[in-house]
Design brief:
The chain is mainly beta and 303 residues long. It folds into two domains: 34-129, Immunoglobulin-like (Sandwich), CATH 2.60.40; 136-265 and 288-296, no CATH class. It is built from three helices and 16 strands. Strand 1 (34-40) and strand 2 (47-52) form a beta hairpin.
């Protein structure tokens, strides 16, 4: 008994001896990284999100606070060029403004577009060609539970016909109306949602997972997707599958892999490779949308 008591005391002493407070002083002149994100969709005007990163503990965290004001943003193709102008939309779910740079000319399928951003004396460039084959949705099946590396989820199984003859990369999209009572699956505490009253508002839910047809070229594929917002039986939605270019798919896949490595300490860390030239972090690419298919939830979301 005395031996055991002695070992416990020794263990406690060693654990206390290993604790040490370390004071870290961050440089006051820390220069943030420019972050650029933009996907072009045929038939839609270009919209580019540009921000500047802040120190981890900085209080400036909303899109409006980190927006890169004063940037010169240009998109060109063939002999045409357009300067994008600042604009914004109001996110009624999170009650905040989301600024961006937007053009007025709809982009076209089959064309190559070049992005040029000039900000604080530096220039960033990237290009994308919109030539992806559109996916065909054959069926949408509700699934009350499926399991992936994050755990168990409810969602939908989108069955598509993969176009043969090319490497294809897909992402899930769901458009629907919600109100402030529809919680988000990954909502953080303290997100204000008191700016809409009882009205319904339109939301787009983009999946985090990237699907590829490698090994399934030309076959029927089942894409299991977790949905982000709560739902009730009879709620109507529209489901779309995005066909991404390869570089954009790689960027979003690395984002998801990084999230996995943050949640699981046994997973090897992932370093995101920027698809922007000039030192900015981010992606400039394109996506071709499938036809939208109506999906009605057959039951309430599981509690």
């Amino acid at each position: 008994m005395n031996y055991l008591r002695g070992m416990l005391i020794l263990s406690l002493f060693m654990s206390m001896a290993c604790e040490k407070d370390i004071q870290i002083e961050l440089p006051v002149d820390l220069e943030g990284t420019v972050v650029i994100e933009g996907l072009l969709y045929p038939g839609k005007e270009p919209r580019i999100y540009i921000s500047k990163s802040e120190p981890f503990f900085d209080s400036n965290v909303t899109p409006q606070e980190v927006f890169a004001r004063g940037a010169r943003v240009n998109i060109s193709h063939r002999q045409e060029s357009e300067v994008l102008v600042p604009d914004s939309t109001f996110d009624k779910f999170r009650c905040r403004w989301v600024p961006f740079y937007e053009g007025s000319r709809a982009v076209k399928f089959g064309e190559t577009y070049t992005l040029k951003v000039q900000f604080e004396g530096k220039t960033y460039t990237a290009s994308t060609t919109i030539n992806q084959t559109r996916a065909v949705i054959k069926e949408i099946i509700y699934t009350p539970e499926f399991t992936d590396i994050y755990g168990g989820h409810d969602g939908v199984n989108v069955r598509i016909q993969d176009p043969a003859g090319a490497d294809n990369f897909y992402r899930f999209q769901m458009n629907r109306f919600i109100d402030r009572d529809n919680a988000h699956a990954h909502e953080l505490d303290g997100v204000p949602r008191d700016c809409t009253g009882d009205e319904e508002f339109y939301m787009t839910d983009l999946g985090r997972t990237i699907y590829t047809d490698i090994g399934n070229d030309g076959r029927t594929m089942d894409l299991l997707a977790e949905v982000s917002f709560e739902y009730n039986k009879g709620d109507s939605t529209w489901v779309i599958i995005q066909s991404l270019d390869e570089r954009s798919a790689a960027f979003y896949q690395e984002l998801d892999d990084q999230l996995i490595s943050i949640l699981n300490p046994f997973v090897e860390p992932v370093f995101i490779k920027s698809q922007i030239e000039g030192g900015a972090l981010g992606v400039f690419g394109s996506a071709v949308l499938s036809d939208s298919v109506l999906f009605i939830y057959p039951q309430d979301n599981p509690l």
